[in-house]
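Chapter summary example.
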Amino acid sequence: MCLKRVQSLTLRPAAGWVVLHRGADTGACLLAYTWMWDNAVQVHIAVAGQPALDCPDDDPTHFVELGRREVGCVWELAVLEHERAAWVRHLLTPDDPDLAGYLRDARAEGPVGPWVSPGPRSGSSTRWASSGRSTG
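The structure predicted for these 136 residues follows.
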């Protein structure tokens, strides 16, 4: 049983999600997360409009890859928390992993934080899988 489970995990298609975080200033962060080894997350980050993060200007649409090792800010981690729980619920704990169920398990839309309505610190996330399916 254990060997069969390990083999099924290694054959699972790649999946992940992206987060677009618009800050209170002119900046924006784009974080692309990918599940790897079935239980770890890899992240690639691009930033725009943040000269303090080596952006060439304050244009929030001019993204450059962030070469530092950040994972995300406190507001982006709420999305990471939801993705982790959905991954465990749909792919790691059931006897028959359910990628389609994971892709359907969306976090509620709206801001992450103490704001009553969407404001300057809003963000969105989209899931993807190597099959080409995504949710928004």
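To summarize the output: The chain has a mean pLDDT of 76.
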